[in-house]
What we know:
Elements: H1 4-16, H2 20-44, H3 53-66, H4 75-102, H5 123-138, H6 140-151, H7 156-163, H8 167-191
Helix pairs in contact: 1-2, 2-3, 3-4, 4-5, 4-6, 5-6, 5-8, 6-8, 7-8
Amino acid sequence: MKSSAEEISSLLHAWCDGDRSALEKLTPLVYGELHRLAHSYMMRERGNQTLQTTALVNEAFLRLIGSKQIEWRDRTHFFALSANVMRRILVDLARSRGYQKRGLNPKKVPLDAELLMSPDPDPDLVKLDDALNALSEFDPRKAKVVELRFFGGLSLSETAEVLKVSRNTVKRDWGMAKAWLLGELKGREIDGS
């Protein structure tokens, strides 16, 4: 009998090869995990969350299954890309709320208004995204570690598997990236940006 990880990987390959029934079998297997990851992330957010967990999962899943260019390698690859998609959704939403609040032209975010819980942007998420983008300019691997661990909820071992490095390398990168990001975020607070 296949493990859940093997079954998900097998279904992803079948789906990429054109088997439409594979997506029907895949959906219940990954949806619960996506929901758990999104919920875990949302629990770490400040109290003024702007999005319900289910809405985030639905939007991420629709974007993932709508992309025809992705050749899924395995379960870990799927959840790594899910982390990236969730990050983009949350940051886009936070930025769009900030633009609306300042009266600028908002960026269109395809989420229903009734799914929103608060009209206020999450400035910490936007600052984190800016800092993470700055980190990726000079150390893309450390930025990817943060994305996979923080936004994707991947373990050290799963992150190592995605990045094809050792678990110890991921652990080192994770510690260094967290320290760098903390310094960057504190510097941004002092600069007032």
